[in-house]
Design brief:
Blueprint lengths: L4 E4 L8 E5 L4 E4 L8 E4 L9 E2 L2 E4 L5 E4 L4 E2 L4 E12 L5 E10 L3 E5 L5 E5 L5 E7 L5 E9 L2 E9 L7 H30 L1
Antiparallel strand pairs: 1-2, 3-4, 5-8, 6-7, 9-10, 10-13, 11-14, 12-13, 14-15
């Protein structure tokens, strides 16, 4: 496999110097001369779940090599985390709330809030789950809860439909301030023309 970390030393009295450290993620902790050796991986991502092999070579009069034959499988586990929560408009007057969470094992998602709507699962990756609450009918707070064996996370969205009881009254309320501004502008322009004339 690809060498992701390599540390070498020339003399018996010095600590090894890093020759390879892929993306500076890997760090050597401890002192191998005192039989204390640890490798730390920083900024873990899901793609770091791989099998790793450790190899130690001693140079000098006796050139010994030690290597882990089966390696060590790194399995990342994580509490749930909500990565995205949104409300979007669909066709017509239909609205959908969508929640995406990640974790290992993959979390179970539930929606809670005002009654109504229908649940639908959306295909996702192995560590990610997405669930939609379609056809939102009621105004209010909708909460998405993600749970796995390592914890839980919540995210919420507030949904309010814009309602008008009388469309002509609504248009009057929208255009009245604009009409007043135009009228004031015309008066000012007329006053300026009258003043110069």
């Amino acid at each position: 496999g690809t060498v992701v970390f390599k540390c070498v030393t020339q003399g018996a009295g010095e600590l090894c110097k890093t020759a390879v450290s892929y993306k500076n993620k890997y760090k050597l902790l401890g002192n191998p001369r005192h039989k204390d050796l640890t490798i730390r991986i920083d900024n873990l991502t899901w793609s770091d779940s791989e099998r790793y092999f450790c190899r130690v070579e001693l140079s000098g009069d006796v050139h010994d090599k030690y290597e882990s034959r089966n390696g060590l499988k790194l399995h990342i586990i994580a509490a749930p985390r909500i990565t995205n929560i949104t409300v979007s408009a669909g066709g017509g007057r239909s609205f959908t709330a969508r929640c995406t969470a990640e974790g290992e094992p993959a979390p179970a998602l539930t929606w809670s809030g005002p009654p109504g709507g229908s649940l639908a699962s959306v295909p996702s990756g192995s560590h990610q789950v997405t669930k939609e609450l379609q056809h939102l009918a009621q105004d209010g707070k909708y909460t998405c809860t993600a749970v796995n064996s390592h914890g839980r996370a919540e995210g919420a969205v507030y949904f309010y439909k814009f309602k008008t009881s009388n469309s002509s009254l609504f248009l009057i309320l929208i255009f009245m301030p604009l009409g007043i501004k135009v009228l004031i502008l015309l008066v000012l322009v007329g006053f300026t023309v009258f003043w110069r004339g």
